[in-house]
Design goal:
The protein has about 350 residues and is of the alpha/beta class. The chain contains ten helices and 16 strands. Helices cover about 30% and strands about 25% of the residues. The strands form three sheets. A six-stranded parallel sheet has the order 13-12-11-14-15-16, sandwiched between helices. Strands 3-2-1-5-4 form a five-stranded antiparallel sheet, sandwiched between helices. Strands 8-7-6-10-9 form a five-stranded antiparallel sheet, with helices on one face.
């Protein structure tokens, strides 16, 4: 999202129009689902994807045509068995796209695009709201957790609020009302700036997590090593949480410090928070030893059972990069609400 809206801002600031192609509805085994986006600018820049293959190729061609014509339109692609070969796809299902022409002379759009770029991946819950009419006309608005709808005069808040979910939502009617999250609330507090941490941060950043790195070693807590992190903090593990904002039920805690005692110190503090996810790297032997230490200081077993350890989904890898992929996958599953359903819990 951030890349797309940043590219849109650059195009509009340079006097170029653009078409934003968004999948607003999908059914069956379409290559990309609702919310996928691709930007095609008047000067030939393309950012994002709506699934690749022939559908994306045709959408890009249509977007270039709409840039020249300065208009918006809806376009459906039906990927049924009789039509798959026609458009070069092997997936079934269907998608509906809204190809939204954005004019550089419209003074209302650049400020909204700039704010959307700033909000994307900020860790603060925010949504882009779009009203769309079948004649191609549209309007933008923004909503954040303050409960304010900016823009979209005449649209009541009670109409928008039920659509503010973790996934894009389309409300039928005239106009169509489409909401999509720009940023999901929650921060990943990553304790330990070692090899796995270095591999994990770029993956989390690509999947729209805001990451704060915490390490007690000055050479490891180096901002230059983690350009994708929101913050990098050098702090003692023993009282780390006293130097952080209050951890909320929307936050994630990932523990991979260099030593067992440091892991224990961070876990002891983490279990006093309502964090949505707490995970700790380590072997089963280390996990068992840490559990005994936590029980010895009076932390109830049911609280310790909140910890996902060994950390990550069991994908069979053991390199830092492979472990990072497994941890990122587990965080994504947690965020989407699928973690428990998939029965991937190791700890307990």
């Amino acid at each position: 999202m951030k890349q797309i809206f940043s590219a849109l801002c650059r195009a509009l600031s340079s006097g170029y129009g653009a078409v934003l192609c968004s999948i607003i509805a999908s059914e069956g085994s379409a290559p990309r689902g609702t919310g996928a986006k691709m930007l095609v600018t008047e000067d030939g820049v393309t950012v994002g994807t709506v699934g690749g293959g022939a559908v994306e190729y045709r959408a890009a061609q249509l977007a270039a045509e709409l840039c020249r014509e300065k208009r918006s339109r809806f376009q459906s692609y039906h990927l049924s068995s009789g039509q798959i070969a026609d458009i070069g796809m092997i997936c079934g299902g269907s998608v509906e796209l809204f190809l939204q022409y954005i004019s550089p002379v419209d003074s209302q759009t650049l400020p909204v695009a700039a704010e959307a770029a700033a909000l994307s991946g900020s860790g603060h819950a925010a949504w882009l709201i779009t009203t769309m009419n079948r004649d191609g006309s549209w309007q933008w608005g923004l909503w954040d957790r303050s409960g304010r709808l900016r823009g979209l005069e005449g649209i009541p808040a009670e109409m928008v609020e039920p659509l503010l979910t973790e996934a894009p939502c389309l409300r039928q009617g005239e106009p169509l009302l489409y909401t999509e999250p720009l940023s999901r609330a929650g921060t990943v507090y990553l304790f330990g700036a070692g090899h796995v941490g270095k591999a994990l941060v770029p993956i989390l950043a690509m999947t729209d997590f805001q990451v704060v790195i915490c390490d007690a070693r000055p050479h490891a807590a180096n901002r230059e090593l983690f350009p994708q992190a929101a913050k990098v903090k050098c702090l003692a593990y023993e009282d780390a949480f006293s130097h952080l904002p209050p951890v909320t039920e929307e936050d994630y805690i990932v523990i991979m410090t260099p030593g067992h005692q440091a892991d224990f110190e961070v876990l002891r503090q983490a279990l006093a928070t309502p964090a949505r996810y707490i995970g700790c790297i380590g072997s089963r032997r280390k996990v068992a030893a840490t559990r005994e230490k936590l029980l010895a200081v009076g932390i109830p077993a049911e609280e310790i059972d909140r910890v996902w350890s060994p950390i990550g989904l069991d994908i069979g890898g053991d390199t830092p990069a492979e472990i990072a992929v497994s941890v990122a996958a587990q965080l994504i599953a947690c965020r989407s609400g699928h973690l428990e359903e998939r029965g991937q819990r190791h700890g307990g």
